[in-house]
Structure formats: C-alpha cells, structure tokens
Amino acid sequence: MTKAVYPGSFDPVTNGHLDIAVRAASLFDELIIAVYDTPPKKLLFTTEERVALMKQAVSHLPNVRVGLFNGLIVEFAHKEKAHAIVRGLRMSSDFEHEFEMALMNKNLAPDVEVVCLMTAQDYQFLSSSLLKEVAQLGGVINNLVPKHVVTALKKKYSLPEESVSRKGGI
Ligand code: ADP
Question: Is 170 exposed, middle or buried (0-12, 13-18, 19+ CB in 10 A)?
C-alpha cells in the first residue's frame, strides 16, 4: 500500500492546494494532509480552524485524511508509515525552496521520497497570503477557494455577505 503525506500551513486551504491533493490522492492509496500546527509565519486561522476548513474541503475524497503535525515532517511521515512527501510547485521561487527542503529531508530520512506536483495553470499565481490580502480588501475570491472558505474569510475580516462577490482587487 502506498501512502503519502502532504504538509502545509493551509491558512486557509485554496483551490491550488486542493488541486494538488486530488491529484496526489489518485497517485497514492492513501494521502494524509498534514496541517502544520505552528509554522514560522503569522497565521490568520487557528490550527483548529485550518484543520476544520481542510476536512470539509476534502470530505468527498475517500482515501484522504487530515492530520496535524509539529516538528519534522519526516518524523510525521515515519510515524504514519508514509513513503512519500507531496509538495506543490508554482514558480521558480517555489522550486528553490522546495529543492532545498527536499534535499534536507532526504538527508534526514533517505527512505522517504519527495514528490513535487506542478501547479495547475489556473492556480499558478494563487497563494494563501495573496488570497487573504485580496479577501480583506473585498476582492472576488469565489473561483479561488471552496465556498465554505469564502464564508470563513468574510467572517474573519467582518465583511458583509456581498463583499467578496463584487468586482475588486488589490
Ligand atoms: P507552507 O507553509 O508549507 O508553504 P502552504 O500552505 O503555503 O504551506 O503550501 C503547502 C504546499 O502547497 C506547498 O508545497 C506549496 O508550494 C503548495 N501550494 C500552495 N499553493 C499552491 C498552488 N496554487 N498550486 C500548487 N501548489 C500550491
């Protein structure tokens, strides 16, 4: 049985993350989405909220489970008996970072492979940080995140119902 973990902050989950999750789920028997509890970055959503948003987003995928991790992802992979770590690749800046991390993880755990999937064209410029910036300013994000994430973002930023469906941007 092939098993992989897909780690990230997912603050919040976007359609770009979901595209990678769906494709990874078709490559492995089981995929565990590992939500990073305390990443070294400022977060908008709590760990519980990020996990709940992700769980709802992947509830239709039978071989996908959502977990929580802290510390080294290779240790989480070992604990879960996963053979691979899945990451998504957008632009060249992602590549450098992912390459560095993949080599470090290989050094730490030679038995765990890092599998990088290329972003879908539609989501190549989509990041959680840019999404939050646009959402806060009332821009249209309906095509970038699942509906329940739109609702969660509106609530976080205390925005009125219609604010994220009108035209707008940064
Ligand atoms: P991290 O804090 O680990 O960077 P993110 O939640 O930002 O966590 O991203 C998790 C993974 O998903 C990373 O491998 C990232 O490159 C990938 N990813 C993020 N957005 C996209 C996207 N739009 N398309 C493809 N992969 C993406």
Answer: exposed
User: Residue 162 carries which side chain, given as an amino acid letter?
Assistant: E
Long-range contacts of 155-158 (CB under 8 A, 24+ apart): 156/44, 156/45
Residue 68 Cα distances to 18, 102, 103, angstroms: 17, 20, 23
Distance, CA of 97 to CA of 30 (rounded, Å): 26
> Which residue has its alpha carbon closest to ligand 1 atom 25?
119
Model confidence, pTM: 0.93
138 CB within 6 A, ligand 1: no
The answer to whether residues 141 and 14 touch, using CB atoms and an 8 Å cutoff, is: no
**87-126 per-position pLDDT tens digit:** 999 988 789 999 999 999 999 999 999 999 999 999 999 9
Which of 90, 98, 100, 132 gets mutated to test ligand 1 (max ligand atoms within 8 A of its CB)? 90
* CA 137 to ligand 1 center in whole angstroms: 22
Does 83 qualify as catalytic in the annotation?
A: no
